[in-house]
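Second attempt. The first submission of Zinc/manganese transport system substrate-binding protein had a stray character pasted in from the spreadsheet, which I only caught after the job came back as garbage. Lesson logged: always re-copy from the clean sequence file. Corrected sequence (309 aa) follows.
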Amino acid sequence: MDFKRLLSGVLLGLVITPAQATLNVFACEPEWASLVRALVPDADIHTATTAMQDPHYIEARPSLIAAMRRADLAVCTGASLEAGWLPALISRASNQDVQPGKPGLFFAAEQVHLHQPHQHVDRSMGDVHPEGDPHIHLDPQRVPVILNALADRIVDLAPEQTNGIRLRQQQWKVHWHLKTTQWRNAARHLEGMSVGVQHSTFGYLLRWLGIDTAIDLEPKPGLPPSASHLSNVLSDPAIPELALILIATYQDERPAHWLAEKVDLPVEVLPSTVTNDADTDHLAALISHIIGRLEHYRSQRPNESASND
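This time the job returned cleanly.
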Protein backbone atom coordinates (compact mmCIF):
# COMPACT_ATOMS: atom_id res chain seq x y z
CA MET A 1 0.00 0.00 0.00
CA ASP A 2 1.46 3.38 -0.99
CA PHE A 3 1.79 6.27 1.49
CA LYS A 4 -1.10 8.31 0.05
CA ARG A 5 -3.57 5.44 0.37
CA LEU A 6 -2.35 4.72 3.93
CA LEU A 7 -2.71 8.38 4.90
CA SER A 8 -6.19 8.52 3.36
CA GLY A 9 -7.24 5.48 5.35
CA VAL A 10 -5.99 6.99 8.59
CA LEU A 11 -7.77 10.28 7.89
CA LEU A 12 -10.96 8.46 6.98
CA GLY A 13 -10.76 6.53 10.22
CA LEU A 14 -10.43 9.76 12.14
CA VAL A 15 -13.43 11.21 10.36
CA ILE A 16 -15.76 8.29 10.94
CA THR A 17 -14.65 7.64 14.55
CA PRO A 18 -17.32 9.14 16.82
CA ALA A 19 -16.15 11.93 19.08
CA GLN A 20 -15.65 10.89 22.68
CA ALA A 21 -17.50 12.91 25.27
CA THR A 22 -15.29 14.69 27.78
CA LEU A 23 -15.29 12.98 31.17
CA ASN A 24 -16.11 15.43 33.98
CA VAL A 25 -14.34 14.45 37.20
CA PHE A 26 -14.52 15.88 40.70
CA ALA A 27 -11.40 14.99 42.71
CA CYS A 28 -11.49 15.59 46.43
CA GLU A 29 -7.68 15.69 46.65
CA PRO A 30 -4.90 16.42 44.12
CA GLU A 31 -3.47 12.90 44.33
CA TRP A 32 -6.62 11.42 42.83
CA ALA A 33 -6.77 14.10 40.15
CA SER A 34 -3.24 13.02 39.23
CA LEU A 35 -4.29 9.38 38.83
CA VAL A 36 -7.34 10.29 36.77
CA ARG A 37 -5.21 12.46 34.51
CA ALA A 38 -2.76 9.58 34.00
CA LEU A 39 -5.63 7.45 32.70
CA VAL A 40 -7.71 10.09 30.90
CA PRO A 41 -5.46 13.07 30.02
CA ASP A 42 -8.27 15.04 28.39
CA ALA A 43 -10.72 14.70 31.28
CA ASP A 44 -12.16 17.90 32.72
CA ILE A 45 -11.00 17.63 36.34
CA HIS A 46 -12.00 19.93 39.20
CA THR A 47 -9.91 19.45 42.34
CA ALA A 48 -11.47 20.48 45.65
CA THR A 49 -8.28 20.93 47.67
CA THR A 50 -4.60 21.84 47.34
CA ALA A 51 -1.40 20.96 49.16
CA MET A 52 -1.92 24.10 51.24
CA GLN A 53 -5.23 22.83 52.67
CA ASP A 54 -6.06 20.22 55.27
CA PRO A 55 -8.43 17.83 53.45
CA HIS A 56 -10.29 17.17 56.70
CA TYR A 57 -11.66 20.71 56.76
CA ILE A 58 -13.06 22.19 53.54
CA GLU A 59 -15.99 24.54 53.03
CA ALA A 60 -18.68 23.37 50.62
CA ARG A 61 -18.34 26.49 48.46
CA PRO A 62 -20.71 27.26 45.56
CA SER A 63 -17.94 26.51 43.05
CA LEU A 64 -17.48 23.03 44.52
CA ILE A 65 -21.22 22.40 44.48
CA ALA A 66 -21.36 23.38 40.81
CA ALA A 67 -18.40 21.12 39.96
CA MET A 68 -19.97 18.19 41.80
CA ARG A 69 -23.30 18.80 40.06
CA ARG A 70 -21.79 18.35 36.58
CA ALA A 71 -19.42 15.48 37.49
CA ASP A 72 -19.66 12.07 35.85
CA LEU A 73 -17.30 10.73 38.49
CA ALA A 74 -16.15 11.89 41.92
CA VAL A 75 -12.89 10.42 43.22
CA CYS A 76 -12.22 10.85 46.93
CA THR A 77 -10.22 9.18 49.68
CA GLY A 78 -13.06 8.04 51.89
CA ALA A 79 -12.42 6.40 55.28
CA SER A 80 -14.05 9.47 56.85
CA LEU A 81 -11.29 11.81 55.64
CA GLU A 82 -13.87 14.08 53.97
CA ALA A 83 -16.69 13.28 56.41
CA GLY A 84 -16.90 16.89 57.56
CA TRP A 85 -17.78 18.29 54.13
CA LEU A 86 -18.32 15.71 51.38
CA PRO A 87 -21.78 14.44 52.43
CA ALA A 88 -23.13 18.00 52.53
CA LEU A 89 -21.54 18.74 49.17
CA ILE A 90 -23.10 15.67 47.56
CA SER A 91 -26.48 16.50 49.05
CA ARG A 92 -26.45 20.11 47.86
CA ALA A 93 -25.21 19.19 44.37
CA SER A 94 -28.12 16.76 43.86
CA ASN A 95 -26.23 14.82 41.20
CA GLN A 96 -27.98 11.46 40.94
CA ASP A 97 -24.91 9.89 39.31
CA VAL A 98 -22.65 10.78 42.23
CA GLN A 99 -24.21 9.21 45.28
CA PRO A 100 -23.10 6.61 47.84
CA GLY A 101 -23.36 3.19 46.25
CA LYS A 102 -23.48 4.56 42.70
CA PRO A 103 -20.65 3.97 40.17
CA GLY A 104 -20.08 7.72 39.95
CA LEU A 105 -18.64 7.89 43.48
CA PHE A 106 -15.24 6.22 43.91
CA PHE A 107 -13.50 5.95 47.29
CA ALA A 108 -9.81 5.03 47.10
CA ALA A 109 -9.73 3.77 50.68
CA GLU A 110 -12.32 1.11 49.86
CA GLN A 111 -9.91 -0.53 47.40
CA VAL A 112 -7.17 -1.40 49.92
CA HIS A 113 -6.62 -2.51 53.50
CA LEU A 114 -5.95 0.43 55.81
CA HIS A 115 -3.45 0.68 58.62
CA GLN A 116 -4.79 0.75 62.19
CA PRO A 117 -8.55 0.28 61.86
CA HIS A 118 -10.47 0.66 65.13
CA GLN A 119 -13.41 -1.34 66.40
CA HIS A 120 -14.40 1.45 68.76
CA VAL A 121 -13.86 5.20 68.37
CA ASP A 122 -14.97 8.03 70.64
CA ARG A 123 -14.18 11.73 70.97
CA SER A 124 -11.63 11.12 73.73
CA MET A 125 -9.33 9.53 71.14
CA GLY A 126 -9.12 12.67 68.97
CA ASP A 127 -9.65 12.64 65.21
CA VAL A 128 -9.34 8.89 64.77
CA HIS A 129 -10.85 7.21 61.71
CA PRO A 130 -12.62 3.93 62.53
CA GLU A 131 -11.84 2.55 59.07
CA GLY A 132 -8.11 3.14 59.58
CA ASP A 133 -5.50 5.69 58.52
CA PRO A 134 -6.83 7.30 55.31
CA HIS A 135 -3.55 8.88 54.12
CA ILE A 136 -2.88 6.06 51.66
CA HIS A 137 -1.76 8.01 48.60
CA LEU A 138 1.96 7.92 49.49
CA ASP A 139 2.10 4.14 49.83
CA PRO A 140 4.03 2.60 46.89
CA GLN A 141 2.21 -0.71 47.33
CA ARG A 142 -1.35 0.52 47.72
CA VAL A 143 -1.41 3.14 44.96
CA PRO A 144 -1.19 0.62 42.06
CA VAL A 145 -4.15 -1.30 43.52
CA ILE A 146 -6.14 1.93 43.64
CA LEU A 147 -5.08 2.85 40.09
CA ASN A 148 -6.30 -0.50 38.75
CA ALA A 149 -9.66 -0.16 40.50
CA LEU A 150 -9.99 3.41 39.25
CA ALA A 151 -9.25 2.34 35.69
CA ASP A 152 -11.97 -0.33 35.93
CA ARG A 153 -14.45 2.23 37.20
CA ILE A 154 -13.71 4.74 34.45
CA VAL A 155 -13.99 2.03 31.80
CA ASP A 156 -17.43 1.17 33.19
CA LEU A 157 -18.47 4.82 32.94
CA ALA A 158 -16.82 5.55 29.57
CA PRO A 159 -16.51 2.24 27.69
CA GLU A 160 -15.75 4.05 24.42
CA GLN A 161 -12.38 5.05 25.95
CA THR A 162 -11.43 1.54 27.04
CA ASN A 163 -8.48 1.02 24.68
CA GLY A 164 -6.80 4.31 25.56
CA ILE A 165 -7.38 3.84 29.28
CA ARG A 166 -5.96 0.31 29.31
CA LEU A 167 -2.90 1.40 27.34
CA ARG A 168 -2.17 4.29 29.69
CA GLN A 169 -2.85 2.02 32.67
CA GLN A 170 -0.10 -0.35 31.54
CA GLN A 171 2.29 2.50 30.81
CA TRP A 172 1.68 3.93 34.28
CA LYS A 173 2.30 0.56 35.91
CA VAL A 174 5.61 0.10 34.10
CA HIS A 175 6.78 3.56 35.16
CA TRP A 176 5.62 2.98 38.75
CA HIS A 177 7.45 -0.34 38.90
CA LEU A 178 10.69 1.32 37.78
CA LYS A 179 10.27 4.09 40.37
CA THR A 180 9.49 1.55 43.09
CA THR A 181 12.79 -0.18 42.39
CA GLN A 182 14.59 3.14 42.89
CA TRP A 183 12.67 3.80 46.10
CA ARG A 184 13.54 0.37 47.47
CA ASN A 185 17.22 1.07 46.87
CA ALA A 186 16.84 4.33 48.77
CA ALA A 187 14.99 2.53 51.57
CA ARG A 188 18.05 0.40 52.27
CA HIS A 189 19.86 3.54 53.39
CA LEU A 190 16.90 5.14 55.13
CA GLU A 191 15.81 2.12 57.17
CA GLY A 192 16.22 2.76 60.87
CA MET A 193 16.10 6.53 60.53
CA SER A 194 13.95 8.28 63.14
CA VAL A 195 11.84 11.41 62.57
CA GLY A 196 9.32 13.58 64.33
CA VAL A 197 6.00 14.28 62.62
CA GLN A 198 2.71 16.07 63.11
CA HIS A 199 -0.21 13.75 62.34
CA SER A 200 0.03 10.56 60.23
CA THR A 201 0.16 12.42 56.92
CA PHE A 202 3.38 10.74 55.73
CA GLY A 203 2.86 7.57 57.76
CA TYR A 204 2.39 5.00 55.00
CA LEU A 205 5.50 6.08 53.10
CA LEU A 206 7.66 6.33 56.21
CA ARG A 207 6.57 2.88 57.31
CA TRP A 208 7.29 1.45 53.85
CA LEU A 209 10.77 2.99 53.99
CA GLY A 210 11.47 1.54 57.43
CA ILE A 211 11.61 4.99 59.05
CA ASP A 212 10.45 5.28 62.64
CA THR A 213 8.03 8.09 63.54
CA ALA A 214 9.27 8.32 67.08
CA ILE A 215 7.64 11.64 68.01
CA ASP A 216 4.24 13.10 67.09
CA LEU A 217 3.70 16.77 67.85
CA GLU A 218 -0.05 16.18 68.16
CA PRO A 219 -1.20 15.18 71.65
CA LYS A 220 -3.99 13.21 69.94
CA PRO A 221 -4.75 12.73 66.24
CA GLY A 222 -6.17 15.90 64.74
CA LEU A 223 -5.57 18.04 67.82
CA PRO A 224 -3.10 20.94 67.37
CA PRO A 225 0.08 20.73 69.43
CA SER A 226 -0.38 22.38 72.80
CA ALA A 227 2.33 24.12 74.81
CA SER A 228 2.06 21.56 77.61
CA HIS A 229 2.34 18.64 75.19
CA LEU A 230 5.39 20.14 73.48
CA SER A 231 7.01 20.68 76.87
CA ASN A 232 6.48 17.01 77.63
CA VAL A 233 7.92 16.03 74.26
CA LEU A 234 11.17 17.79 75.20
CA SER A 235 11.86 15.10 77.77
CA ASP A 236 10.96 12.17 75.50
CA PRO A 237 13.92 9.73 75.37
CA ALA A 238 13.44 9.39 71.60
CA ILE A 239 14.43 13.02 70.96
CA PRO A 240 18.20 12.39 70.65
CA GLU A 241 17.57 9.79 67.93
CA LEU A 242 15.63 12.13 65.63
CA ALA A 243 17.16 13.21 62.32
CA LEU A 244 14.55 15.90 61.64
CA ILE A 245 10.99 17.05 62.19
CA LEU A 246 8.83 16.51 59.11
CA ILE A 247 5.58 18.41 58.60
CA ALA A 248 3.22 19.05 55.70
CA THR A 249 2.84 22.39 53.94
CA TYR A 250 -0.72 22.84 55.19
CA GLN A 251 0.29 22.48 58.84
CA ASP A 252 1.23 25.29 61.22
CA GLU A 253 5.03 25.42 61.29
CA ARG A 254 5.35 27.17 64.65
CA PRO A 255 5.14 24.11 66.94
CA ALA A 256 7.73 22.26 64.88
CA HIS A 257 10.12 25.21 64.85
CA TRP A 258 9.67 25.80 68.58
CA LEU A 259 10.62 22.20 69.35
CA ALA A 260 13.40 22.16 66.76
CA GLU A 261 15.07 25.21 68.30
CA LYS A 262 14.97 23.62 71.75
CA VAL A 263 16.59 20.37 70.63
CA ASP A 264 18.70 21.62 67.70
CA LEU A 265 16.93 19.77 64.89
CA PRO A 266 16.10 20.77 61.31
CA VAL A 267 12.49 21.17 60.20
CA GLU A 268 11.51 19.98 56.73
CA VAL A 269 8.21 21.27 55.34
CA LEU A 270 7.05 19.18 52.37
CA PRO A 271 3.88 18.94 50.29
CA SER A 272 1.88 15.91 51.29
CA THR A 273 0.09 15.80 47.95
CA VAL A 274 0.59 16.64 44.29
CA THR A 275 1.26 20.29 43.41
CA ASN A 276 1.72 22.34 40.24
CA ASP A 277 5.51 22.39 40.69
CA ALA A 278 7.45 20.28 38.21
CA ASP A 279 9.18 18.18 40.88
CA THR A 280 5.90 17.21 42.60
CA ASP A 281 3.30 17.39 39.81
CA HIS A 282 2.34 13.70 39.94
CA LEU A 283 2.42 11.02 42.62
CA ALA A 284 5.64 9.29 41.57
CA ALA A 285 7.44 12.63 41.40
CA LEU A 286 6.07 13.59 44.82
CA ILE A 287 7.26 10.38 46.46
CA SER A 288 10.69 10.73 44.81
CA HIS A 289 10.92 14.29 46.08
CA ILE A 290 10.04 13.32 49.65
CA ILE A 291 12.52 10.43 49.61
CA GLY A 292 15.20 12.71 48.20
CA ARG A 293 14.77 15.16 51.06
CA LEU A 294 14.91 12.35 53.61
CA GLU A 295 18.11 11.06 52.01
CA HIS A 296 19.59 14.54 52.39
CA TYR A 297 19.16 14.42 56.17
CA ARG A 298 20.32 10.84 56.38
CA SER A 299 23.53 11.88 54.65
CA GLN A 300 24.15 14.41 57.41
CA ARG A 301 24.74 11.46 59.77
CA PRO A 302 27.33 9.41 57.87
CA ASN A 303 28.52 7.41 60.84
CA GLU A 304 25.03 6.17 61.63
CA SER A 305 24.36 5.40 57.95
CA ALA A 306 27.56 3.40 57.69
CA SER A 307 26.72 1.38 60.81
CA ASN A 308 23.35 0.37 59.32
CA ASP A 309 24.63 -0.63 55.87
